[in-house]
Amino acid sequence: MYIAVFSSLLPVSVGIYRWKIIGIDLKALQLLLLIGFIIDCFTIKGLNFVYLHELAYVYLLFELLMVIYIIIFWQESLLVKKILQITIFLYIAFWVGARYLFSDFTRLYSIVGSVSKIFFVLSAGYTLFIVVENRIGMLRQDKRFWILLSFVLNSCGTLMPFALQELLWIQSKQALFIAWSITLVITIISNILFTIGFLCPQKQT
Predict the structure, then answer these.
(1) CB count, 10 Å around CB of 124?
(2) What is the 8-class DSSP label of residue 202?
(3) CB 18 within 8 A of CB 198
(4) What is the pLDDT of residue 53?
(5) What is the pLDDT of residues 110-124, one digit of tens each?
(6) How many angstroms separate the CA atoms of 60 and 127, rounded?
(7) What is the largest CA-CA distance in the chain?
(8) Cβ 179 vs Cβ 160: under 8 Å
(9) SS3 11
(10) How would DSSP label each residue in 43-98?
(11) pLDDT score for 190
(12) In the chain, N or C terminus with fewer CB closer than 10 Å?
């Protein structure tokens, strides 16, 4: 857990080092990673259960807004940009409504988190496909490729624990532990991919 949590400091540190040359897209990503790291530190420290879940729930919305902002920034199609913007408003309405529908924090976090991860997979996966299809230069030098790949990998890896955590908690705590352990490994890999993205030439190719 500690390695996974502190691995987010790797892309954040590279982002700070390259602050003057990275664009607003990567600065938004850096802010997202930094806030996520702070919340993870609160989790490790054992913040009050209610406060921690409230904080994590707010972070779900913040995470989605920042990730979709980055994806919209890289999206070439005006139609897709418009669809993503509309979807954001729908998600916000869902996020607000779910907070009052479900009093159980575990179930609330599971349902809303699952929806956000599905949204990430679809939007980032589609944009990644477009980036690969329309590439001009070497793909490995395109920051969008590495960061979108990280979004897709991380979202796919965390979708199952989010969606099934309530069921796994009841049926098999060991299976839930294994699922989240795999997620921690994926988090480390995702942060490495983010770091590669920060190190790429900042002009999109």
Answers:
(1) 25
(2) S
(3) yes
(4) 76
(5) 888 889 999 999 999
(6) 21
(7) 51
(8) yes
(9) helix
(10) HHHT--HHHHHHHHHHHHHHHHHHHHHHHHHH---HHHHHHHHHHHHHHHHHHHHH
(11) 94
(12) N
Structure-block tokens of residue 50: 């209610």
Q: How far is CA 76 from CA 41, 62, 142, in A?
A: 37, 23, 15
> CA-to-CA distance for 100 and 79, rounded, in angstroms?
33
Q: Tell me, what DSSP letter sits at residue 141?
A: G
Global pTM?
Answer: 0.88
Residue pair 139/166 in contact by the 8 Å Cβ criterion: no
| Residue 53 to residue 67: CA distance in whole angstroms | 21
User: Which positions of the chain have pLDDT values less than 50?
Assistant: 205
H or E element that contains 139:
none
* b/e 168-181 (16+ beta carbons within 10 angstroms → b): beeeeeeebeebbe
Strand ranges, E, within 96-171 = none
142, 200 in Cβ contact below 8 A? yes
Tokens 């406060």 correspond to what residue? Answer: 51
Report which residue type is found at 47.
Answer: L
Secondary element (H or E) of residue 33: helix 24-45
